[in-house]
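Entry 12.
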Amino acid sequence: MNTLLTKITTYLLGGRSMLGVDNLPESWGWVKDIVNAIDTLLYPLLIVVGAAGMIYAVVIGVQMARADSTEKREEAKKRLINVIVGLAITIALILFFKLFINTILPAFVKPVEEDPTATAMIRW
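Predicted 3D structure (C-alpha cells):
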C-alpha cells in the first residue's frame, strides 16, 4: 500500500520500518506478531469507524433538519456535536498509534545486561 500517509511517515522516520519491531530480540517474536496484527487492523478499523460515524452524523443531521420543535432541534444539535467530537478523537487515536507505534514499543523494551541468558524485559 503506497499511500500518501505511508510516504509521509516513511520520510519522517528516515526510511525505517513503521512498526519499530525490527530491532527486537529473536525471543520477542510474539511481540512482532501482535504489533503486525495491530498494524494490519488499524486501517480497516479507521475505515469502518469513519464510515459509521459519518453515516450516523448524516442521520442526526437529517433528524435535526426535520425536527418540529426547537427542543428536538437542540437535542439533535447536541448529539451531532458529540458524534463529531467522538469521531475526531477516535480517528486521531488510531492515526496516532499507526504513526508512532515504532516510538512507543521500543520505549517499553530494554536489554537486560545483568543476566547473560536473558534477552529483554519489559519496563513498567
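Annotation: The radius of gyration is 21 Å. Residues 70-108 form the longest helix (39 residues).
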